[in-house]
Amino acid sequence: MNTKIVHSQTPVLLVGGGRCADAALTKALADTKCAVAADGGAAELLARGHMPDSVIGDMDSLSAELQAQLAPGVLQHIAEQDSTDFDKSLRHIEAPLVLAHGFLGARVDHQLAAFNVLVRRADRRCVLVGEDDIVLLCPPKLQLNLPKGLRFSLFPMTNLRGTSLGLRWPIDGIDFSPDTRIGTSNEVSGPVALEMVAPGMLLILPPEALDPVLDGLQSAPLTWPARAE
Q1: Which of 28, 67, 106, 164 has the fewest Cβ atoms within 10 angstroms?
Q2: How many CB atoms lie within 10 A of CB 76?
Q3: What are phi and psi of 218, to 5 degrees?
């Protein structure tokens, strides 16, 4: 089957099969014009009376009964097992932003797989939204208006450096690495400005930071400058 790319000029809601924060998902459905489900995430949308614009995945988590309820052309079956349904979905969405619900929660292995996809699909701007956290890949530059004292965590998925303003413990000059130095449990001390030399740093914040993050992403560049050889 030739899988269709979901094209949108506005943010896209992507719903997975994990736990979703009810109020946050309700707001996202109201704020977005296009809703895509990753495999079993279609059950959540159908239960809310919302027909997905597309359902992408290997369909091992969506019952035949629910598949039969989908509108013609909605189901996009990708049989290969070398990638997750989140990866399959994200790479088939072209939009300025993807709000991904249902990918954070009880399964740590699923969360780690989603973090891996955020880094490998750095060309797709995506924010994972959960009950206790939001997670995104730091763009090359990001400015955020966040309340003082807010929890602010950085986790490197590779070796890299960055600079910061507005953090209680600045990150300038630190060699980050997933097996040595990480940046969790920092704290906002003023208007935040981050710069990263390369993709690979995850930003982890409480859910109340979502709107400021979305505001900051509007003016943040997506591509990193070429690195000197």
Answers
A1: 106
A2: 21
A3: -60, -35
Coil vs helix vs strand at 170: coil
User: pLDDT for 183-220, tens place per residue?
Assistant: 999 999 999 999 999 999 999 999 999 999 999 999 99
What DSSP designation does 208 have?
Answer: G
**Residue 181 token pair:** 């130095």
Residues 114, 103 contacting (CB under 8 angstroms): yes
Q: Which helix (H) or strand (E) holds 166?
A: strand 162-167
Is the pLDDT assigned to residue 177 strictly greater than 90? yes
Q: Computed over its alpha carbons, how large is the radius of gyration of the chain?
A: 18
Three-class DSSP labels, 55-92 = EEECCCCCCHHHHHCCCCCCEEECCCCCCCHHHHHHCC
CA distances from 183 to 97, 139, 221 (A): 25, 16, 22
Indicate yes or no: pTM above 0.70: yes
